[in-house]
Write a structure and sequence with these properties.
Layout lengths: L3 E6 L4 H11 L5 E7 L4 H11 L3 E4 L2 H13 L5 E4 L1 H9 L5 E4 L7 H9 L3 E4 L2 H18 L2 E4 L2 H8 L8 H4 E8 L17 H4 L9 H9 L1 H13 L7 E5 L5 E7 L4 E5 L5 H9 L34 H7 L4 H17 L7 H12 L10 H23 L1
The structure holds nicotinamide-adenine-dinucleotide and magnesium ion.
The site of nicotinamide-adenine-dinucleotide has 25 residues, from helix 1, helix 6 and helix 10.
Length: about 400
C-alpha cells in the first residue's frame, strides 16, 4: 500500500480534528505533511507534536514565531509559515497527494483552487469555496486533473449512491433529495425567533460542528449553501435538487433514479464516516463512528421545510437562476450577518434581512470569462454591501 501524504487546511476545527482522528487509526495509510490553523495556535502546536508535519501554516508572522519556538524547543524540524499565500503553497506541494479543505468560509477558496490546479485529491468540506467559486472551481478541477471528493455528509451520501463512472450520472439521476435536520428551531414558534441568542443557535440537536455552520444549520442557510454545492458537484439543474427535513439525521441524502428507485445512504450522524470515505475512496476503512442499531432505532420521519421559519432556503434556487456571481453574493452576505449575530450585534431574524437586502442591492456584474480576482473583488463588494445592510437593519 502506498502512503497517502496529506495536508489538512483548518486542522484545528471540527472537521480538521475529526480528520486527524480518522488518520490516527491508520498510521500505515496516511502521513500528515502539513497542517494549518487561524486561531488556537496552542492546539496547532499539540497537533504538530503528535503528527510531526513538514509544514505548519498560521495567519501572521507573530503567530508563526510562537509556534516555531515551541516546536524548536521540542526538537521538531517543522517549517512554520504564515499568510494566505503559504496556504496555497502547502495545498500545491509536490509531496502532498491529498488536501483536506476544512477552512470555514470564502477564505478557503484560493487554497482550494491551488490544490485543484495542482491536480490533488481534494477532499472538500469547505462548501463556501465551491459556492463562491462555482464554474471557475469546477474548471480548475478539470484542467488540473484533480479528483474532487465531497466531505459534506449529504454530498458524500449522494456520491456513495452513484457509480464511479461519472459519465453515467446524468442518465441515471432524476433528482436528488438533500436531508436536513431542521436544527434547533425546527418546531419553534416563528414569533419567538427574534429573541434567539447565539448560544441557543449553536446548540445543534444532532451534530457537533463549528460555530458558523451551526448558525447556518439553525437558519437552514447551510442547506441553501448545500443546494448550490450539489449543483456544482453533480452538475444538476436547480430543479433537480430538493430538500426535506429529516430530524433524526440517519438518512444523509438520497438519489431518485430515472426509474423511480430511491438510493439512500444511512449512518449515525458522525462526520468521521464521510471523512473516512473521502480519505480511502474508492476503498472503505474503519472510521471510528458509532454504528446504527436498527432494532432500537427511533422512527425515521420527514417533513417539508417551513418557509416562515427558514425564509433563506429558497434563496439558493433563486441565486442559481440569477446572474452569475449571485451565489457568491449570497455567501458573503451570510458570512457577514452570521459573524455579526455571533458577536451580539445583530438579531437572529435580521440575518435573513441582511442577506435579502444585500442580494437586492448588489448587481454582481461578473463577465462569463471571469477569473479568481473578479470573484475576490465581488466577494469584497458583497461584504461591503452586507455591512451597509447590517447598519440599516440593526437600526
Ligand atoms: P471550524 O470553525 O470548527 O474550523 C475552521 C478551521 O478553519 C479552523 O482550523 C480555523 O482555524 C480555520 N480558519 C478559520 N478562518 C480562517 C481563515 N480566514 N483563513 C484560514 N483558516 C481559517 O469549522 P468546521 O465546522 O470544521 O467547518 C469547516 C468547513 O467544513 C466549513 O466550510 C463547514 O461548512 C464545512 N462542514 C463542516 C461540518 C461539520 O460537521 N463541522 C460538516 C459539513 C461541512
Ligand atoms: Mg452538510
Amino acid at each position: 500500500m502506498t502512503i497517502q501524504r496529506l495536508a489538512i487546511l483548518g486542522s484545528t476545527g471540527s472537521i480538521g480534528c475529526s480528520t486527524l482522528d480518522v488518520v490516527d487509526r491508520h498510521p500505515e495509510r496516511y502521513r500528515v505533511v502539513g497542517l494549518s490553523a487561524y486561531h488556537r495556535t496552542g492546539q496547532l502546536i499539540e497537533q504538530c507534536l503528535r503528527h510531526r508535519p513538514l509544514v505548519a501554516v498560521v495567519p501572521t508572522e507573530a503567530a508563526a514565531a510562537e509556534v516555531r519556538s515551541a516546536l524548536r524547543e521540542a526538537g521538531l524540524a517543522t517549517a512554520v509559515r504564515s499568510g494566505a499565500e503559504a496556504l496555497c503553497e502547502l495545498a500545491a506541494r509536490d509531496d502532498v497527494d491529498s488536501v483536506m479543505a476544512a477552512i470555514v468560509g470564502a477564505a478557503g477558496l484560493r487554497p482550494c483552487l491551488a490544490a485543484a490546479r495542482a491536480g490533488k485529491r481534494l477532499l472538500l468540506a469547505n462548501k463556501e469555496a465551491l459556492v463562491v467559486g462555482g464554474a471557475l472551481f469546477v474548471a480548475a478541477v478539470e484542467q488540473g486533473g484533480a479528483t474532487l471528493l465531497p466531505i459534506d455528509s449529504e454530498h458524500s451520501a449522494i456520491f456513495q449512491c452513484l457509480p464511479e463512472d461519472r459519465s453515467s450520472w446524468a442518465r441515471r439521476i432524476d433528482h436528488i433529495v438533500l436531508t436536513a435536520s431542521g436544527g434547533p428551531f425546527r418546531s419553534a414558534d416563528p414569533a419567538t425567533l427574534d429573541a434567539v441568542t447565539p448560544a441557543q443557535a449553536v446548540a445543534h440537536p444532532n451534530w457537533v460542528m463549528g460555530r458558523k455552520i451551526s448558525v447556518d444549520s439553525a437558519t437552514m442557510m447551510n442547506k441553501a449553501l448545500e443546494v448550490i454545492e450539489a449543483r456544482w458537484l453533480f452538475d444538476l439543474a436547480p430543479e433537480q435538487i430538493r430538500v426535506v427535513i429529516h430530524p433524526q439525521s440517519i438518512i444523509h441524502s438520497m438519489v431518485v433514479c430515472r426509474d423511480g428507485s430511491v438510493l439512500a445512504q444511512l449512518g449515525t450522524p458522525d462526520m468521521k464516516v464521510p471523512i473516512a470515505y473521502g480519505l480511502a475512496y474508492p476503498e472503505r476503512i474503519e472510521s471510528g463512528a458509532p454504528r446504527l442499531d436498527f432494532p432500537t432505532l427511533q422512527p425515521l420521519t420527514f417533513e417539508p421545510p417551513d418557509p416562515r421559519r427558514f425564509p433563506g432556503l429558497q434563496l439558493a434556487w433563486d441565486a442559481l437562476r440569477a446572474a452569475p456571481g449571485t451565489t457568491a453574493v449570497l455567501n458573503a452576505a451570510n458570512e457577514v450577518a452570521v459573524e455579526a449575530f455571533l458577536a451580539g450585534a445583530l438579531r437572529y431574524t435580521a440575518i435573513h434581512r441582511v442577506i435579502a437586502t444585500t442580494l437586492e442591492t448588489l448587481v454582481p456584474g461578473l463577465a462569463p470569462d471571469h477569473d479568481l480576482d473578479d470573484l475576490l473583488d465581488l466577494d469584497a463588494r458583497a461584504r461591503a454591501a452586507a455591512n451597509a445592510a447590517l447598519k440599516e437593519v440593526a437600526r
